[in-house]
Design brief:
The chain is mostly helical and 87 residues long. It contains 3 helices and no strands. It has helices spanning 6-32, 40-61, 63-85. The radius of gyration is 16 Å and the shape is globular.
Amino acid sequence: IFNLNFSVAVAYTLIFVGIFWNGIGAFSLGLSGNIIWNYIPVLIFGSLLGGYFGAYFSIIKGSMFIKTVFEIVSFSVGISLILKAFQ
């Protein structure tokens, strides 16, 4: 739609989701007082590690590899959520 290749479009999506969606969620949890501060370092480390490897594989393998991995992960999460809904 915006004449971006798949890698750039996914990068923009992840940046905006990370900043806005996760930021709003963190702010909401902060207001309710339910932040588990021990998880913060692990979440930051996982985010940085995932971002690094995502960028690395995007550069090395190309956008087709990233698209395939993204679709597999999205499909797996969807199936997991459906199965958990029926438990």
